[in-house]
């Protein structure tokens, strides 16, 4: 976000730039950037946060040793969290539920929506495997009672059971439930719930900051010609005179 304040700090600010774009040379831009002081400790925390959230336990451990940055959570729990997430992604919902309960039994006890979505995913997997009778029995015994207590659950259940009405489920109106994206959605919900149980945010901070950078640049594009970062992987400043 420092680039946004650099332009705001120019004489006349955004009001002056409203009528014509101001040219900010690379030399001017880099001088302003050098005046922005960012602590190395804060940068290290961002990196550690990303590694922890994305489940890179070995990289996080190495980074902890090399940088001296302590994570907010026990790194040993990352493996368990990722195992539960992967189980859902592979369609092994029963295994995922067991892993979540082993991790912290209160997670599902206090989150009826997550438990319903896991049971719904289990129903989807039964239908995917062609186990029609077992799927109907499971829906009636495990999901229907929850649907009677919650209208949104009932609507999701009805939509899921509708898969049984079509011979070619890949082309039916609710066929998206069998897509990998549905597993990923449920897996992400499991991941977020486990992180919440550890008093941790569900999304890493680094991608959010990059989104803020993109937004800030889009705002400044209308007001000034300045050294942009067009390639986030290299973070190379492009000279405005070359654009």
Profile the largest sheet: 2 strands, parallel
- State the helicity in percent bands: 55-70%
How large is the share of residues in beta strands? under 5%
The count of strands amounts to: 4
Give the end-to-end Cα distance, rounded to a whole number of Å: 21 Å
**Radius of gyration, rounded?**
25 Å
| Class inferred from helices and paired strands | mainly alpha
Mean pLDDT: 87
Question: Would you list the SSEs in sequence order as H and E?
Answer: HHEHHHHHHHHHHHEEE
Tell me the number of helical segments per DSSP (H or I, 4 or more residues long): 13
> What topology, given as strand order, has the largest sheet?
1-2
**Shape call:** elongated
Weakly predicted, low-confidence segments: 4-8, 10-19
Q: Tell me the count of domains.
A: 2
Give a structural overview.
- This protein has 243 residues and is mainly alpha-helical.
- It has 2 domains: 2-38 and 207-242, no CATH class; 75-197, no CATH class.
- It has helices at 2-8, 13-17, 26-34, 40-54, 57-67, 76-89, 93-103, 106-109, 112-128, 132-149, 151-161, 180-197, 205-220, and strands spanning 22-23, 224-225, 228-229, 237-238.
- The strands form 2 sheets. A two-stranded parallel ribbon has the order 1-2. It has a two-stranded antiparallel sheet with strand order 3-4.
- Helix 4 runs antiparallel to helix 5 and helix 9 runs antiparallel to helix 12.
- The longest helix has 18 residues, at 132-149.
- The chain is elongated, with a radius of gyration of 25 Å.
- The two termini are 21 Å apart.
- The model is unreliable at 4-8 and 10-19 (pLDDT under 50).
- Pfam families: CTLH, LisH.
